Amino acid sequence: MFVTSNLSALQPELFKDLENAAGALYIPISYSRGDYLVLFRCEQLRDIRWAGEPGKSVLLSEDTARVSPRKSFAAFVESVRGQSRPFSEAEQGLADSIRIGLMDVTSRGSHDSLVEQARARGRQELLIAELNHRVRNVLALIRGLISQTHGDGGDSAKYVDSLNGRVQALARAHDRVTRQNWGPGRLNAIFDDEIAAYVPTRRDRFTISGPRVLLQPQAYSTMALVIHELVTNSCKYGALCDSGCVEVNLSLLAGVGLLFKWVEKGGPTVQKPSRRGFGSVIIERVVPFDLQGTAAVSYLPAGFEAEFFIPERYLAAELAEIETLPADRLSSSSPVGSAMESGPLLGRHVLLLEDNLIVALEAEDLLRALGAASVIAVSSVAGAIGLCDANSFDFAVLDINLGFENSLDFAHRLRRAKVPFVFASGYGEQSISGESRISEMIVAKPYDRESLSSAVALTLCRHASALEGA
User: How many domains does the chain have?
Assistant: First the structure.
């Protein structure tokens, strides 16, 4: 510690005008230099009485100077300024106790801070490692789908269609589990997604019975691929390509796992395929290989059947509530469904706001396939504003996140201009909140023709109703 009752004596120029800080007690509170608790004391005026004036007067004459004797019996009073009352030994002892206590507290806090920083670094490294692991796995899976789908044969259009369907199935499954913060996903939701994407007009010919089951994220993508292949095969060759139906039965075996049966009825006569394509490999081998379960298929003349067993460790829980088909899964009997069949963007001019060229090119093709007369793509909000000032658009597709900016303010501009639009995002519905999330639809990327068509048709239907109401 450092103690003084006369600060002005240390730095005269600095402390000469201080009235409330004449003395100070400096208490160090950490092991780092420069951390102090400072207690100040104000000035205490005091008088010193002398028996006589300490100084002697000097008398000057024409010839000499002589010292005049003091007036021995005249009292002299001197006022002392700039000093405080001294800090006593007891006060300094108390300050030393404060020093020890505060240094212990700050030392402990510093240690806790270092520990928390180490934990934070550990969590960050774990997060980066997990992200790296998942990204590598996804890239490896996509690469495998690309190379293995090529083995299906056929022309390039068939190849692209098969590959796109499988990638979209994975994207939908990934979106489901990420909405739950990478938590369990509903198995029934996979059926809803696949049926809505490929056979929306035949929803009544597809039934599911059994408990509502949650699958762990590890199993969710696996089952999404399997169910995708089952649905597409049935649409191409099985019961759903004709007037038949599909029955799915789910049975929980207590303490063991889930039994999943797929049965097709009323379709064309089934014959075992002569060539075993990649789709058959997915159906027969993915569950045993990835989930250590079982898979068995039967090509019966009355209809294709498949049975799968998923071990209990991949099941999260049983859902008691009854699921209903989401409101945006519409049949072709509705006005929106009719618009989808004829091309919802027929003859319309569309603005596409997208910051990735490859993604924009794919979106342009999809929008033209939906009937758009023209599609103009731009990668920035400023560019979009410039296009709107110079052109008239009937519809817009807006990517939410555009690198260093987002499209939300531009969306308000389109609302004021009464131009219908949909949002698009690789983050799904979690990327937007509030009014925009309620009033506009969000199309998850990568783009899928069916989901984009549904969103566009529903948005145009809502827009027309709003104009009629106004």
Answer: 3
Cross-strand partners of 76 = 50
Angle at 30 between CA 93 and CA 105, to 5 degrees: 80
Output the domain CATH number for residue 159. Answer: 3.30.565.10
d(Cα 437, Cα 37) in Å, to the nearest integer? 53
Looking at the fold, whether 434 and 288 belong to one and the same domain comes out as no
Round to whole Å and give the CA distance between 58 and 68: 6
Last residue of a domain, one of 275, 291, 319: 319
Radius of gyration of the chain (CA): 41
318: part of which helix (H) or strand (E)?
Answer: strand 315-319
Sign of the dihedral defined by the CA atoms of residues 375, 380, 384, 389, in that order = negative
Which contacts of 87-96 are long-range, i.e. CB under 8 A and separated by 24 or more positions? 87/3, 87/5, 87/23, 87/25, 87/41, 91/25, 92/1, 92/3, 92/25, 95/1, 95/25, 95/27, 95/39, 96/1
Dihedral class, residue 71 (left if φ above 0, else alpha if ψ from -120 to 50, else beta):
beta
Please compute, for residue 208, the number of CA atoms within 13 A of its CA located in the half-sphere on the CB side. Answer: 18
116 vs 47, more confident? 116
Per-residue model confidence as pLDDT tens digits over 208-235: 998 888 888 878 888 988 998 898 888 8
Whole-model pTM over 0.70:
no
Q: Are 167 and 145 in contact (CB under 8 A)?
A: yes
